[in-house]
Amino acid sequence: MSELPKAPDVVRSCYAELVVTDLERAHWFWVELLGLHVQHREDGVLCLRGSDELTHHNLVLREGPVAALDHIAYRVRTPEDVDRAERYFTAVGSPVRRIPAGEGTPGVGDAVRVVDPLGFPVEFFHDISRAERLIQRYDLKRGARIARLDHFNIVVPDIPAAYRHYEALGFGCSETIEDEHEMYAAWMYRKQTVHDVAFTGGAGPRMHHIGMATHESHSVLHTADILGSLHQEGFIERGPGRHGVSNAFYVYLRDPDGHRVEIYTSDYYTGDPDHETFRWNVHDDRRRDFWGNAVIESWYKEATPVLDLAGNVTPISESAIDESATRVGADGLGD
Ligand SMILES: O=C1C=CC(S(=O)(=O)O)=CC1(O)O
Ligand SMILES: [Fe+2]
User: Fold this and answer.
1) Taking the CB of residue 152, how many other CB atoms lie within 10 A of it?
2) What's the rounded mean pLDDT across residues 164-181?
3) Which GO MF term does the entry hold, naming one (predicted)?
4) Which of 104, 165, 235, 306 has the greatest number of beta carbons closer than 10 A?
5) Is the C-beta atom of 248 inside 6 A of ligand 1?
6) Of 139, 97, 141, the residue nearest 122 (C-alpha)
7) How many CB atoms lie within 10 A of CB 158?
8) How far apart are CA 146 and CA 129, in angstroms?
């Protein structure tokens, strides 16, 4: 097989574009409840960001008929890396579309969108509009006090294939869940934290969740308290709790369309060149919740469909393995 072109130099996971069926209802959840800042609004589109985000957005909500992931987006180091992404994904046989500045997502410059080998719609871009510095605008911080987007979690039927794809893009691996036969999950990074992307085993391609970072664990608790106060506790799916993997403090919510979001804080540094992968045994019931709390079935089974470059929902393939069927203490749902 001839040598592949050089992969693009990914800096970080930057934003996701989600299709929502009712933009006003989504505005209530993501802006009024969670406190994301509105950077841009136009007919049927909302561009939102956390307080630490210095570029145009971390989340784009676009009103449409079917709740789905339109694309996830990685920022690359240079404009030339957008060209590299186009060459690389063309060489691996992916559908590729170049999107000139002004013709794609508001605020984003020249970009390339692909359907990657895992079936996910992914954008690579460098140029994006700058935004007002809100890092110390404590007067504007509300709800979950979200700082920035931290990661994407994607559902894939073949975890080793996902691992190989992202390893080829230069991602490191911080943690895995394994046994002597299988890899059940993996967390991979380009920025120097636990992950930019994680893989959950299951029927896919589907989007499991977007992880939004907040600075303090009391903001995670405060998010749950706000929902309780509003008698909207039904939006809480899992947690609050302490993860085994990543050591982060977390709560998972489902938005009005069922899109899952994790409010996440206090993971750790992974930037040394010899950083070693920490491997959890699938039979350790502290792996997903360090206190041994059960992972409810919807967290393993439910996820968001993804669109192809034509905007059609991508069919999914079943997974050969099912972590939730592994009998492990509190969260084994199998026999
Ligand atoms: O961000 C994450 C960190 C850890 C976990 S887990 O539930 O601890 O595996 C899940 C997660 O991928 O959402
Ligand atoms: Fe996560």
Assistant:
1) 25
2) 97
3) ferrous iron binding
4) 306
5) yes
6) 97
7) 18
8) 20
pLDDT in tens, 59-114: 999 999 999 999 999 999 999 999 999 999 999 999 999 999 999 999 999 999 99
Give the dihedral sign, CA 158/322/248/148. positive
Phi, psi of 179 (to 5 degrees): -135, -165
Alpha helices (runs of H) in the chain, residue ranges in sequence order: 23-27, 79-91, 159-168, 217-229, 297-301
Residue 44's region, left for phi above 0, alpha for psi from -120 to 50, else beta, is: left
- Of 30, 51, 42, 163, the residue nearest 105 (C-alpha): 42
Asked if residue 324 lies in contact with residue 163, where contact means CB atoms within 8 angstroms, the answer is no
Cβ of 19 less than 6 Å from ligand 1 = no
Residue 187: which H helix or E strand, with range?
strand 183-189
| Domains of the chain as residue ranges with CATH | 10-128 (3.10.180.10), 142-307 (3.10.180.10)
- For residues 16-43, give the mean pLDDT: 98
The token pair that represents 105 in the structure block: 């997502």
- pLDDT for the residue 326: 67
pLDDT digits (tens, 9 = 90+) for 207-238: 999 999 999 999 999 999 999 999 999 999 99
Q: What distance in angstroms lies between residue 263's CA and the mean position of ligand 2's atoms?
A: 8
| pLDDT, mean over the chain | 95
Residue with CA at minimum distance from ligand 1 atom 7 = 288
The contacts of residue 94 (CB under 8 Å, 6+ apart) are 114, 115, 116, 117
Ligand 1 close to Cβ of residue 285 (< 6 A):
no
